[in-house]
Amino acid sequence: MGNLSKPTRSLNPLGVAGLFEPSPFLDHLVKFLGTVSGTDKVFMFVQYYSKIVTWFLLRVGKKIAAEQITNLATPISDFRILLRYYGLLPLIQWMIHIEHNPPPTRYLLTIERLQNFANILYYPLEHMWWLGQHKVIPLADTTMNRIGLWSCRFWAIYVILQFLHLYEEWKLLKRRRNEIARKAVTSSSSSSSSDSAEIEMEQKALRVNEEEIIRNAIVNVGYLPLTLHWSIENSSFPDIGVGIFGTLAAIYQFIAVWKSTG
User: Fold this and answer.
1) Cβ distance 130 to 81 under 8 Å?
2) What pLDDT sits at residue 188?
């Protein structure tokens, strides 16, 4: 009898990718890295985590390796500032948006207006500092340092205001949770399936909102010491501290952008 087994297809070296199945994870990763925020968060993690690695390498006497890591982190920091060079455009867009679509309370609107004002001053000062640092525009060292300090002070104002913003959001969340709980009690007596489904959806949305608030609070905890450190002339805050708090903020911002691009 003849051989009835299926003929094996010879592998074309140029078609080696056919050995792999389409990957949802790879699709998500490409989408994530295709955004400015996604790219920034990857580089942010490398930038700050490298400070922790550098600290460790210096502790064990590997000075050359520490210098190599620093040589990688420095251009990454530069690149991240360049990514923010058109940051004023989405900021202006957001300023217009909140005036036409205000947040739920007047207090939140006031906080967001103040945050926007702080950022309107932060961005140009940071850009000016960067241009002076790289000798693109002539700036005396003392002038450039003052510009850098004030840039970070406005950033620090934004971060402090963000704690107030998150606290107000948390209060609104608790209020909404209580309303849904009362609604659930009423719904259980009526035994309406449509009401139960609606309540379940609202509870799910609340859980997502709660995760976002907690995540943003952790990011803010990471940013606060950094902004205060860079706002104080001759600050004694250690570089390892910058690495730890910066890495904390980077990880949770990475998670936020990853979820938003899913």
Assistant:
1) yes
2) 66
